[in-house]
Structure formats: C-alpha cells, structure tokens
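input
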Amino acid sequence: MSCRRHGTDQPAPFCRRCRAGPSLRRPDDRGAVAAEFAITLPAALLVIIFGAGALAAAGQSVRLQGAAADAARLIARDDRGSAQVLVAQLPGRVAADVEESDRLVCVTLSSPVTVAGLAAPGLDVSARACAAAGGR
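output
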C-alpha cells in the first residue's frame, strides 16, 4: 500500500512527506512570510517617518505662532530686548522679520522643519502675528 497523496512507493504510515509537517507538504510556500515581511517593513517605516515628520511640523508651527504673537506684543510695547531673548530661546534656527507701521507691529518667524534633531531640506514652517502699535 503506497501513499496516494504524494505518489511515493512507501507505505502511507511511513511516507516521509506525510510525517514531516507543513514544511515538506507545501515546498512552494516556503519563505513567503519572509518575503512579504521584507516588502511591507520598509513601507511601514516610511509611513511612520512621514507621520512623525508631520507631527513635528505641526508642533513647531504651534510653537512659532505663540512666540510670534508674544514677540509682536513685546515690540509693540517698545521692549525689543525681551523679544530678542524670546526668539533666541526657541529651538533650532529661527529667522525673524519685523514690519512696523503707524498702527501695527507684525512679526514673522520661520524655521526649517526638524525631526529628531535632523532638518528636513526644503521644508520650512512660518508663523505671523500682529499687535497694535504702542501696546494699545
């Protein structure tokens, strides 16, 4: 009595392929999980990196917006020294631009997006805030 399932000459209870387990039963599926993992892992890492970058940019934008509003109020009250200290305390390279008119003082702050301490080339975050001149 030979193994009908695998077409071998060995008796069914002694068929090596029947006793061996799944690795010899389906040799065409071996390594499929490793190949799928090798394909999906880089894609998943890219999604995580881009998500972290988006969160970092959003947090940086909120931080710059608050600092721009505070700096505009300080400059409107003729306290430029405190505004410079405030901008200098911000993390990373921050560029400040001040526009003054008779009625308004506007401050624009911009900074490159950083993720885990690394700057993303070509991506800048900026924030603009205005305050009434004279502190009124």
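quick obs: DSSP finds four helices and three strands in the chain.
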